[in-house]
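tokens incoming
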């Protein structure tokens, strides 16, 4: 952990962001990293972290990102989830959306889409997973409204990047090579 995070997640909050920024600084010094072609990735709640990290990358170290089943509007996602999932999210953040709306807003890419302009995004959506895909719609609408370049890849199973399932991996690598 970094910045008092003690190695625990705060659901893509400020402590997770500080850890990710520290990792970027470490990668800057790594001789095996091609800094001009650095992509980040995140799935589920870590997609929020990928978006936040890319939005706050004032040094332009990140070329783009790939997200799987992204949470782009945490409040909308929260509202669509089961009571158990809501309790889990509130527990990790420390409060409900009613108690701390700013905590939910800062984790939601729909609120800072303007800071993502100019960096390509690859969105993988599993349409068969019991996941509130509807919350992504507002984000995609914002991307479309601003003529933002992104690529959406819909899948129908959880193993789209698994060993032996080359389609998802090949599609992602092809997209990265085209950027």
């Amino acid at each position: 952990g970094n910045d008092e995070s003690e190695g625990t997640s705060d659901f893509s909050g400020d402590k997770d962001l500080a850890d990710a920024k520290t990792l970027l600084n470490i990668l800057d010094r790594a001789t095996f990293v091609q800094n001009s072609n650095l992509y980040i990735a995140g799935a589920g709640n870590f997609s929020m972290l990928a978006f936040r990290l890319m939005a706050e990358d004032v040094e332009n170290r990140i070329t783009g990102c790939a997200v799987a089943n992204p949470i782009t509007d945490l409040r909308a996602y929260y509202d669509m989830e089961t009571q158990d999932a809501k309790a889990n999210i509130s527990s990790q953040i420390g409060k409900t959306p009613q108690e701390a709306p700013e905590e939910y807003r800062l984790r939601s890419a729909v609120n800072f889409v303007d800071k993502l302009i100019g960096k390509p995004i690859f969105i993988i959506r599993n349409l068969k997973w019991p996941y509130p895909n509807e919350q992504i719609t507002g984000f995609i609408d914002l991307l479309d409204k601003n003529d933002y370049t992104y690529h959406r890849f819909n899948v129908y199973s959880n193993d789209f990047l698994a060993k032996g399932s080359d389609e998802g991996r090949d599609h992602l690598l092809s997209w990265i090579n085209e950027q």
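note: Residues 14-29 form the longest helix (16 residues).
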